[in-house]
Amino acid sequence: MMTAMFDRIALIGIGLIGSSIARDVKELGLARDVVVSTRSADTLKRAEELALGTAYELSAADAVRDADLVIVSVPVGASEAVARQIAPHLKPGAIVTDVGSTKASVIAQMAPHMPDNVHFIPGHPLAGTEKSGPDAGFTGLFQGRWCIFTPLPGTDAGALATLRAFWGALGSKIDEMDPEHHDKVLAIVSHLPHIIAYNIVGTADDLETVTQSEVIKYSASGFRDFTRLAASDPTMWRDVCLHNKDAILEMLARFSEDLAYLQRAIRWGEGDKLFDLFTRTRAIRRSIIEAGQDVDVPDFGRHSLEKKA
Ligand SMILES: NC(=O)C1=CN([C@@H]2O[C@H](COP(=O)(O)OP(=O)(O)OC[C@H]3O[C@@H](n4cnc5c(N)ncnc54)[C@H](O)[C@@H]3O)[C@@H](O)[C@H]2O)C=CC1
Ligand SMILES: O=C(O)C(=O)Cc1ccc(O)cc1
């Protein structure tokens, strides 16, 4: 157990991400008090049953009072509502951060409400699963995974160092980039794959000549991989699509163009074009494996943080 980095952490939203942070904070002893807050009474009760915090508040305003670190882990579309609720009650000098999958929109929603005497530092841990809710979280989720900060100009270096140290304690590797670039990168590596998965599973579900039971019975592992992504939380992914609209539409336009090329090559029997593309993409997979980034979701991070070397 480490010495506490914070007297009091407030967790606003206690789903997969919030509850995984809570579990790590508890296991590592990173805070003396952890106040958990979420919108629904049922979820808050479940968080208490799971002993995820030391105090539980339905009101986000009450939860952030006296907190040195506030972590907002709600669907990105709820960011402004949360910012409005907490802003008047934040402790001077507090660090306020988030974990949202899109960054420019979260900044636009939250920054205008943040008082000058707090440090607002947007963040995004690149770790998760298709599951949601407080039962879905687990210790070690962030171990060995990237956490990207998109700090605003003029961010206090000390506050940024403290937040880096916090995520470092959870085992994350840290990067910084500007929010628009973050949103483009994530559009291609995360948002598009989910949209493609939702689409292909929807297409399979709509077929008339192949029945749903055949799709289920004969689903090869390629299709099964898509169904895992397509089982991700609908609220979260609706919000990602609506709040990273421009970058996603740009990547979808590129994707459609490339798909048309592929379609044409298949139609005209241009095997060399297919072979060349499939060779190029195989190299990307090799590079990911060589870079040690080939963590499979069902297994990653499930070891205890205590077992960390
Ligand atoms: N699921 C994943 O794999 C990852 C998700 N993220 C981001 O983390 C954030 C949270 O995602 P999850 O934990 O997966 O979602 P989740 O659905 O498991 O949990 C969301 C939590 O937010 C609460 N909530 C919703 N609206 C609220 C509001 N207006 N006020 C207070 N609480 C509210 C819900 O009650 C729940 O506790 C999202 O912004 C998502 O984009 C980031 C990395 C990975
Ligand atoms: O389940 C998966 O494969 C994921 O990709 C999880 C994930 C979802 C959203 C994020 O912003 C980051 C990670």
From TrEMBL:
Source species taxonomy: Bacteria, Pseudomonadati, Pseudomonadota, Alphaproteobacteria, Hyphomicrobiales
One Pfam family recorded for the sequence: PDH_C
Statement: the UniProt record of this protein carries the keyword Amino-acid biosynthesis: yes
Entry-linked Gene3D superfamilies: 6-phosphogluconate dehydrogenase C-terminal like domain, NAD(P)-binding Rossmann-like Domain
Native source species: Rhizobium terricola
SUPFAM superfamilies: 6-phosphogluconate dehydrogenase C-terminal domain-like (SSF48179), NAD(P)-binding Rossmann-fold domains (SSF51735)
Limits of the Prephenate/arogenate dehydrogenase domain: 7-296
GO biological process, alphabetically ordered: tyrosine biosynthetic process
Record's protein name: prephenate dehydrogenase
Biological pathway: Amino-acid biosynthesis; L-tyrosine biosynthesis; (4-hydroxyphenyl)pyruvate from prephenate (NAD(+) route): step 1/1
